[in-house]
Amino acid sequence: MIIGERLQSPLINIEESIAIMPIFANLVRWSAIFSLLAISAGCSSSPKATAPQATTSPTTAASPEPIITPIPTASGNGTKAETTPQASPTAPVKILPVEINEFEAFKHPSGLFSINIPKGWKKQENSKPGELLVIWTNQGGNSLLLIDIVKVPGKVPPEVLGKKLQELLRQQFGQKTNLTVSDPKPQSNGRTLVEWSYQEQAGGNSITVVGNSFIEQQNDKISILYVGYPKLEGGNAQAKLNEVANSYKIDPAGQLP
């Protein structure tokens, strides 16, 4: 029985889809990345103000963490009393908006796809036999682009692909705060789009992480392209990553690993 026939069954569940379609299994595999988008090392913090410090003799070595040094005060018996050291308040982390200014053309050596990638984004490939999987992250590490392509023996209806992708997104991010997953939206280029978002706590801030997932089939190849990034004032990630998605082209004649 071909994959297309099994996916058309209204009784098929998401676990069966994952088992017969590696591309969905990879969404499980890489979904953890999106949980880190708003809390990655790419976040920068505002400068921390430290209180004036007084020292006593002899001078002690400075602590590696900002502290308020005890200030000597006179006690009733003529001895010096010291206050308990208190940690200075930590300033909220300032999450920088994602800015994309230039693109560079990329064509995979296999010939399977081409795409315009934001300049300076770091590429990582985790392909294996029968599957092509390529990931890009921005320099801050808080935005991600992922392409996953596999070969299938039969035709899968777009509405089935969209529905299964929607269900799996809900399953994977179901514990996230304020999760939203849109209905599948057929696109004029033959793809199906599922939009999603959720709230993530980052450095004392509540950040909205948003993403677009596109799924399509070209001949015997099925592809998922999806992006995720923190939605912040002043960034241009949404518009620029839409341009990236629109530049994505699959060549079904290309060979998988």
Task: Describe the 3D structure.
The chain is an alpha+beta fold. The chain has one domain: Protein Transport Mog1p, Chain A (3-Layer(aba) Sandwich). Helix content is 20%, strand content 34%. The protein has helices at residues 3-7, 14-20, 22-35, 158-172, 237-247, and strands at residues 44-45, 67-68, 73-74, 80-81, 86-87, 93-94, 103-107, 113-118, 122-125, 131-137, 144-151, 177-181, 185-186, 192-202, 205-218, 221-231, 249-250. Strands 9, 10, 11, 12, 13, 14, 15 and 16 form an eight-stranded antiparallel β-sheet that branches. Strand 13 and strand 14 (192-202) form a beta hairpin. The longest helix has 15 residues, at 158-172. The radius of gyration is 25 Å and the shape is globular. The two termini are 24 Å apart. The model is unreliable at 1-25 and 31-76 (pLDDT under 50).
Overall mean confidence score, pLDDT: 72
- CATH class designation: Alpha Beta
Poorly predicted parts:
1-25, 31-76
**Architecture per CATH nomenclature, i.e. the level-2 architecture:** 3-Layer(aba) Sandwich
Q: Please tally the helical runs, counting DSSP H or I stretches of 4 or more residues.
A: 5
Using the CA coordinates, give the radius of gyration.
25 Å
Shape verdict: globular
